[in-house]
Amino acid sequence: MADHEVLFEGIRFDVIRRFQETNRGGRRPREIVRHPGAVVMLPVLDDGRIGLIENYRIAVDETLIELPAGTREPDEDPAETARRELIEETGYRAGNIELLSEFFMSPGILTERMSLYLATDLEAGPTSLEPGEEIRQLPTPLEEALAMARDGRIRDAKTLVALMYYACFIAPNRPSPRSCF
Known about the structure:
Low-confidence stretches: none
Order of helices and strands: EEEEEEEHEEEHHH
Strand order of the largest sheet: 7-4-9-8
CATH topology of the largest domain: Nucleoside Triphosphate Pyrophosphohydrolase
Number of domains: 2
Shape: globular
CATH architecture of the largest domain: Alpha-Beta Complex
Strand content: 35-45%
């Protein structure tokens, strides 16, 4: 990104201004949040329940129902981020971790690429929460998690994407993709 200026440098992200060439020959300034990327984990317990969490989010001043997730460290492999964040937020150690999909969170203003991992063969252990994290475990049957997505109890975008992807394409006894949409 050579044609930009840094407006803000933060701990987890920067804000930059880039200039976009318009179809009329002009230049249009755009402010962009430059983010190192993140992961979301879909932990599936041996009994099939989904490892949802309740997580207080200061940005919206609410406790949201989510899947565990976290920001990548510089030059960290996303699979390692997934393993690390899963342990930190849930205490689970994954015997198997599989990349399911990657997607952009809000590409109109944000560079964040989210990597979705399925975590299975889980072994319980202690969490390692960061200071200020308020997280409670909420293991939930898939059908109930989908009902929570449908009725609005789950409003976190990465969790909605992950649950729909899993239910439509991966879960045992899943419905046909046509019935998912």
